Amino acid sequence: MQRRDFIKTLGAAAVIGAVVPAMSFAADAPKGPNAFSYKQALDTITGGKTPVKSEKIHLKVPEIAENGAVVPVTVEVDSPMTESDYVKAIYIFATKNNNVRCVAMHLTPANGKAILGTRVKLGGTQDVAALVEMSDGSFLVNSQSVKVTIGGCG
Amino acid sequence: MEERKALIKIKPKSYADGEIVKVDFMVMHPMETGMRKDKKTGQVVPAKYINSVKFDYNGKIITSMNVWESVSVNPVFTIYMKVNGAGNLKVTFTDSTGEVNESSIEIKPKG
User: Fold this and answer.
1) Which residue is closest to A76 within chain B, CA to CA?
2) Which among B109, B110, B106, B82 is positioned nearest to B8, based on CA atoms?
3) Taking CB atoms and an 8 Å limit, are B62 and A113 in contact across chains?
4) Is B75 on the interface with A (CB under 8 A)?
5) Is B36 near chain A, with CB under 8 Å?
6) Which residue of A3, A86, A105, A145 has the fewest CB atoms within a 10 Å radius of its CB?
7) Per-residue pLDDT of chain A (154 residues; tens, 9 = 90+)
């Protein structure tokens, strides 16, 4: 009778390396780091008040902008700019940009005229809005749509 | 810290005391949004934009602005100002990386 015992020695083959997979949370969220919506901006500034649409605000923006990277915007507000009645602040928003806020200008009666001119980037066809805070605490708003041929963000 | 080229222009060139003049302020600045990718390296260019502009006339701040990245590259800001005696108009601008620069112009009303 022959009997052979085969002793199978299992080498410690299963060396499981505790490899933590590289954290790959790519920052490809649709919104950028500084995203700010139009509603959010309005609420922050007016504190819940609804701004009144007004023709006192003259918003000069081209109706068609060929290049969205440079769109000239001028906001002029009819106001006597005296100590008792003046424009306190002018805000310009590009309503569909990632961060809608462009410029917030705080004026004093020493300005003489309530005018703000600048140039903004527009990511695509959208409305440009101007929100104005008067010295009596009321808010006025006006907006105009701009057709953008080539977007200016990115 | 990089020196920024900035320019202040007053229109009209000749003005009297008490007149309301137009002030154009221009500055050379890249105004990076922090969302643009470099075409060569594929890396996101970090945000760097002007976030504050202050107009200081004879030590009194007449206008201050908060600015965000939606403003174009090499921004231009146009404001109006009532001339109130000879003096100095100083513009101080800060960017999101903490860079502070200033530029000034002499105000010399005629007559």
Assistant:
1) B79
2) B106
3) no
4) yes
5) yes
6) A3
7) 566 665 444 444 333 333 333 333 333 333 556 788 888 889 889 988 889 999 999 999 999 998 999 999 999 999 999 999 999 999 999 998 888 999 999 999 999 999 999 999 998 899 999 999 999 999 999 999 999 988 776 5
Q: Quote the Cα angle for A87-A123-B33, to 5°.
A: 80
For residue A87, the chain B residue with the least C-alpha distance is B63
Please tell me which of the candidates B34, B66, B70 has its beta carbon nearest to residue A120: B70
Whether A102 and B70 lie within 8 Å, measured CB to CB: yes
Kindly report, residue by residue over A96-131, the tens digit of the pLDDT.
888 899 999 999 999 999 999 999 999 889 999 999
Assembly ipTM: 0.89
Domain assignment present for A15: no
Question: By C-alpha distance, which of A127, A128, A140, A114 is closest to A49?
Answer: A140
Q: How far is CA B15 from the centre of its chain?
A: 22
Provide the whole-model pTM: 0.82
Which residues does chain A have within 8 Å of residue B78's beta carbon, measured at their own beta carbons? Answer: 74, 115-118
* Enclosing domain of residue B28: 6-107
Q: What is the total count of domains within chain B?
A: 1
Kindly give the pairing relationship between strand A101-106 and strand B60-67. antiparallel
CATH number at residue A120: 2.60.40.2470
Question: In terms of residue numbers, what domain contains A85?
Answer: 33-148
Which tokens belong to A120?
A: 């903004």
